[in-house]
Amino acid sequence: MTASAGERRAAPLALAWAVWGLGALFYLIAFYQRVAPAVITDQLMAEFAIGGAALGNLSAFYFYSYVAMQIPTGIIADRWGPRRLLTAGAVTAALGTALFAAAPDIGWAGTGRLLIGASVAVGFVSLLKLASHWFPPRRYALATGMLLLTGLIGGVAGGVPLRMAVDAFGWRAVMGVSAGVTAALAAAIWLWVRDDPAEHGYAGHFQSGGRVERVPVLRGLAQVLSYRNIWLLTLVPIGFSGAVLTFGGLWGVPWLRQVHGLDAKSAAAITSTLLVSWGIGGPLLGSWSERMRKRKPLYVATGAIALAGWAAIVFLPLPLWAVVAVLVPLGFASGNLIVGFAWAKESVPLRLTGTAAGFCNMGPLMGGMLLQPAVGWLLDRHWSGALAGGARIYDGAAYQAGFALLFGACCLSLLLLLFVRDSLCRQAV
Q1: Of all helices (H) and strands (E), which one includes residue 387?
Q2: Is the CB of residue 285 less than 8 Å from the CB of residue 294?
């Protein structure tokens, strides 16, 4: 005799974390792809004969399609469920990675990056949706923070390990293997991930076991966009997270090599400390805001810390040890985007969380989309004409001009944050 929904017990946490974790591996790959260009800038610039603006644009192709997919992804996640989205996304990401690996010119390479960005865009929102079904509300911020930490493990893999593999086998071969691994993950997700614990005979944590009130797509989107908090919480991470993605995901490694004289592996290791501290900060800050029962004070305080950190990096003549010492708290504080995701979820009714998450997730990626090529454009504007192995070499003044954009974006983000209404950790109805 089958137990009724009311008699079912909650899924064991080990099973919940296993199902969620398998999907999180896709987000790990997504983050690996996000930052991979940072350690192969010299190879890409030399092989495709491009400058800083074109390189920033090539890297940002990932963000162009990623951002464009966020709203449709949120809507589809609300209506179709994450399992099919994650599987289809992993298959497409494998194809895009294979195309990037085999690209004969910059156009095909950009197309590959465009496919990768569009496909992995389903990962974050789908996993937020899985978390709302598989975990009780009190664990949502923790699960979201752990997702960022999982992604940052992918970011670290895209640092020193990737550079070592590229030095040994070449960037094309490494990307080809990455395509195969992503295809294997697509099969695993389809076989084992389920949208709701009810499919395993357990009680779910979302709308009585996963039954969702169906809202017409356009009406649901209009409802989400009617909340002022959603707009502001989308714009705020453009500065804080966009600065991390721009520095850690593309321009930090060449800056450390060309201005501070480091080799590629050492430079990648230092930028990885930024990403690691970012990943650690996410779950901890999310958990602390839950305990405080407030979102705004912690978000504002960490935003001010991040702003001060970028001011020091950009405008002070710091020695290398001081750069590392600043990057750690700067990255930790920038994990405040996890507070923002939980805050956004609470700012709309529960039935709209997928759409809201998709819209708000555009913010961090818009930061990378806008700032990566903008920094590259400024680098080209201040380029003295120096080349090494076919790749452009920029001096300290050029990097200071480019990185000043990061500081300015964070200033604007902190200002906007002051106008967001605190949810006090209570779900809107």
Answers
A1: strand 387-388
A2: no
**What's the rounded Cα separation, in Å, for the pair 160 and 270?**
9
Q: What length does the chain have?
A: 429
**Cα–Cα distance measured from residue 104 to residue 49, given in angstroms and rounded to the nearest whole number:** 12
The neighbour count for residue 105, using CB atoms within 10 Å, is: 10
pTM of the model: 0.81
Domains of the chain, first to last:
13-205+214-417 (1.20.1250.20)
> CA-CA distance, 253 to 391, in Å (whole number)?
14
Strands (DSSP E) found in 323-399? 387-388, 391-392
What is the per-residue pLDDT for 275?
Answer: 87
Residues 140-179 have pLDDT tens digits of: 767 877 887 788 789 889 888 999 999 999 999 999 999 9
Give 2's pLDDT tier (boundaries 50, 70, 90).
very low
Is 27 in contact with 150 (CB distance < 8 Å)? yes
Which among 24, 9, 99, 15 is positioned nearest to 62, based on CA atoms? 99
Hey, is 135 helix, strand or coil?
coil
